[in-house]
Amino acid sequence: MKQPLRVLIVEDNDADVQLLLANLRAAGFQPEWSRVETDREFRAEIAKQPDLILSDYSMPEFDGLRAAQILQASGRDIPFILISGTLGEEIAVTAMRHGVTDYLLKDRTARLGEAVIQALAQRRLRGEQKQAEAALQLFRTLIDQSSDGIEVIDPETGRFLDVNETSCRRLGYSREELLNLRVADVEVEPLDSVAWRKNVAEIRVLDFKVLHLRQKRKDGSTFPVEIYARFLKLDREYLLASVRDITERRKAELESESQLEELKRWHEVLLGREDRVLELKREVNELLARLHEPGRYSIIPTA
After folding, report:
1. What's the CATH number for 146-245?
2. Helix (H) and strand (E) counts for the chain?
3. Where on the phi/psi map is residue 287: left (φ > 0), alpha (ψ -120 to 50), or beta?
4. Which three-class secondary structure state does DSSP give residue 182?
5. Distance (Å, rounded) from C-alpha 152 to C-alpha 301?
6. Which residues partner with 103 through β-bridges?
């Protein structure tokens, strides 16, 4: 089955148009085409986003270089093949500078099909690359907006290979500064090479490890963190660390611990008071017994 192809042809010669169409059909395409000969017509047609543009180099009212300039200025990614009876090296260089995908001599249009296949493949690759770049940019934006610090670390040296904006903001360094530091440079507790290798070995065996440490900012202040570290193997081994600032959690835990201690203290005080009341009741009952009077208080033994 022939491949449908919407073609815009910039040409004033009917015979040349038919030759181009014949070459496209011979190459396995089914062209749906339109032809223009002026600047205004060309601008109107490229707005319809054809799959391909074939343009003669020179015409009475318009020319291929001008068409290429207009297309380039529009920002549309449409393969543009320039066709000329004669094309010097200087003109060819100028044409490529203006975004021309390829150029052919009119006596060699038999290779038009090959040139079109290559031009369409190049556009497809450009589209895939743009999509990949957009996806990567979206991923980077999501990572940078994470509330946790995300750090990619060299397991051999402990050097930061990549960090998100949260890590930079929290530690007070620029990204460039952090990429020149090692994990040991932001830890409060000393972390020598032996301790680092031990941690790395444990993570490699267990696949992940949770650590509770304190980190220090560029200004010297410190804060508690909870780190989830795991190995990631792609083209090489990496350590991937998710670093959470637990300052508020630790503050809440300390407040809870303080409240619990206060409750325990009051509980002991109240128990002490109850014991004293019981003791007084016993003394009253004993005094009444000496006076041969009945006891006033019924005392239930405490556990």
Report:
1. 3.30.450.20
2. 9, 10
3. alpha
4. strand
5. 66
6. 82
Structural element, H or E, at residue 56:
strand 52-56
Instruction: Give residue-wise pLDDT tens across range 9-23.
Output: 999 899 999 999 999
Of 135, 126, 39, nearest to 77 by C-alpha is 126
Distances (CA, A) of 193 to 89, 154, 220: 61, 13, 22
- The pLDDT tens digits for 153-199 are 999 999 999 999 999 999 999 999 999 999 999 999 988 888 899 98
Helices 64-74, 39-46: axis angle to 10 degrees equals 40
Amino acid letter for position 247: T
Q: Which residue ranges make up each domain of the chain?
A: 3-138, 146-245, 261-303
Say which CATH topology domain 3-138 has.
Rossmann fold (3.40.50)
pTM above threshold 0.70: no
Between 270 and 239, where is the model more confident?
A: 239
CB of 204 within 8 A of CB of 232?
no
Residues ≥6 apart with Cβ < 8 Å to 37? 10, 11, 12, 59, 61, 62
Q: Which ranges in the chain belong to alpha helices (H)?
A: 14-26, 39-46, 64-74, 89-97, 112-144, 165-171, 175-178, 193-206, 247-290
Torsion from C-alpha of 143, 146, 152, 153, nearest 10 degrees: 170
Encoded tokens for 62: 């318009």
The pair phi, psi for residue 214, each rounded to 5°, is -120, 135
- 81 touches 99 (CB < 8 A): no
